[in-house]
Amino acid sequence: MISKRRLIVTLTLLLASGFLLTSLASYYASLNSLRVRIDDNELPLTSDTIYSEIQRDLLQPLFISSLMASDTFLREWVTEGEQHADKVVRYLNEIKQRYGTVTSFFVSDHTYHYYYADGILKTVSADEPRDVWYFRVRDMQQDYEINVDPDMANHDSMTIFINYRVKDYQDQFIGATGVGLTVSAVKNLIENYQQNYQRTIFFVDPQGVLTLAGKEFPTSITSLADIEGLSAHRDQLLNEQQNTLVYQRNGETFHLNTRYISEFGWYLMVEQSEEPMLRQIRLTLLINVAICFTVTFIVIILTQMTINRYQKRLEEMALTDKLTRIANRQAIDLHLQQLFKEQQRHQVPFSVILFDLDNFKQINDTHGHIAGDAVLQNIANIVTTELRDCDVVGRWGGEEFLVLLKHCQLDDALKRAESIRLAIQSYAIGFEEQTLYTTASFGVVEYRDQDDHNTLLKRADQALYIAKQNGKNRCEVIAQL
């Protein structure tokens, strides 16, 4: 009787302890999964959607501006001496009324008159800071630009302008035309997303000054420096095209995703607290503990096996680049640290190759991001086949790759880099019945005495910069700083 009771107590304690440990492991795995989901999926998806909405809203005014720039009436009116200004004023007013724009305008390169729907607003001048945009448009190569400026004709309200170059029949620049849209549409989009997805969305300029936010954003906050938890990371956030950040504020964990909107010259900031989702995870933990006394030992083992598999998958995800299936930056950093240790113990020489795909943005812009992903995957395969078993290649950034060459001095590393360069240059990448080609620029350095992690990579980055400056699709070396 005593033995049976002791067995029951022992089994009860074992079952309870096992399920408690399993539940705790599940809690932390879910917490980690929650953070990965926020950082890798939810916040970037919100950012991408807002960016897509902005681009969609800009398509129609861009089309209108293109029509205005090629309108025979406008061009002939200018070339005939800009007589009867009321004609172009009526024309601009009709554009504004027909398409519902905030403003429509034309600036003549002959008279510098700024015409809009109500007449002549002013005469632009190169010495006037508010007129810098016109002289920038006059000198640029592309047909149009999109920028955000105060609109003098609408009480300096922030307006999205489509500035389009106008040329005469001899292809000579004669002025700039276009339309303006209010930023209120973007503001409404911000508020809708904040309400529907419990995220804080705002824009800042390259100096970190708040430019646009929803109605509920605190009025006391005017820049990143005023936001607790973000002020210390201001330079990091404003020096990269995209970024993710996890930080604390008032004891609460927040996640931030940033994206540079080149059309505006602003940074889109999407912030989310993990506390609402974390409460659900904690509740789940309590339920798991409560039911642990009613489930069987088999369920415990199956649950533990599932958690183990899941944790193994998380570890693999943490060290492998999801797209290219090679080492990610965290993994390549660990390999580099190991090389430093081996060099210090056994004086093992090693070299580093940092290379960057040339004109990769053009591939994305021309063929789409799926094509860009295919290029990155193929480049990873090409480099892997060119390396020895003891070498390591990893994705260092968007289209940047870092190669670690153990037992390799500078001359051999340069040969290896040249071999990879030629392989990339000659490789035909098939994508949707198309054949894509690309090239890469290489920076090659060897470990030198007194080198540390930062100085070694700095030399590699400088060598890569020199390769880019010298025409791309080449290898450059730097022996010492």
UniProtKB/TrEMBL annotation:
<dbReference type="InterPro" id="IPR050469">
    <property type="entry name" value="Diguanylate_Cyclase"/>
</dbReference>
<dbReference type="GO" id="GO:1902201">
    <property type="term" value="P:negative regulation of bacterial-type flagellum-dependent cell motility"/>
</dbReference>
<dbReference type="Pfam" id="PF00990">
    <property type="entry name" value="GGDEF"/>
</dbReference>
<protein>
    <recommendedName>
        <fullName>diguanylate cyclase</fullName>
        <ecNumber>2.7.7.65</ecNumber>
    </recommendedName>
</protein>
<dbReference type="InterPro" id="IPR033479">
    <property type="entry name" value="dCache_1"/>
</dbReference>
<keyword id="KW-0812">Transmembrane</keyword>
<keyword id="KW-1133">Transmembrane helix</keyword>
<dbReference type="GO" id="GO:0043709">
    <property type="term" value="P:cell adhesion involved in single-species biofilm formation"/>
</dbReference>
<dbReference type="GO" id="GO:0005886">
    <property type="term" value="C:plasma membrane"/>
</dbReference>
<dbReference type="Pfam" id="PF02743">
    <property type="entry name" value="dCache_1"/>
</dbReference>
<dbReference type="InterPro" id="IPR029787">
    <property type="entry name" value="Nucleotide_cyclase"/>
</dbReference>
<dbReference type="GO" id="GO:0052621">
    <property type="term" value="F:diguanylate cyclase activity"/>
</dbReference>
<dbReference type="InterPro" id="IPR043128">
    <property type="entry name" value="Rev_trsase/Diguanyl_cyclase"/>
</dbReference>
<feature type="transmembrane region" description="Helical">
    <location>
        <begin position="283"/>
        <end position="303"/>
    </location>
</feature>
<feature type="domain" description="GGDEF">
    <location>
        <begin position="348"/>
        <end position="480"/>
    </location>
</feature>
<keyword id="KW-1003">Cell membrane</keyword>
<keyword id="KW-0472">Membrane</keyword>
<dbReference type="InterPro" id="IPR000160">
    <property type="entry name" value="GGDEF_dom"/>
</dbReference>
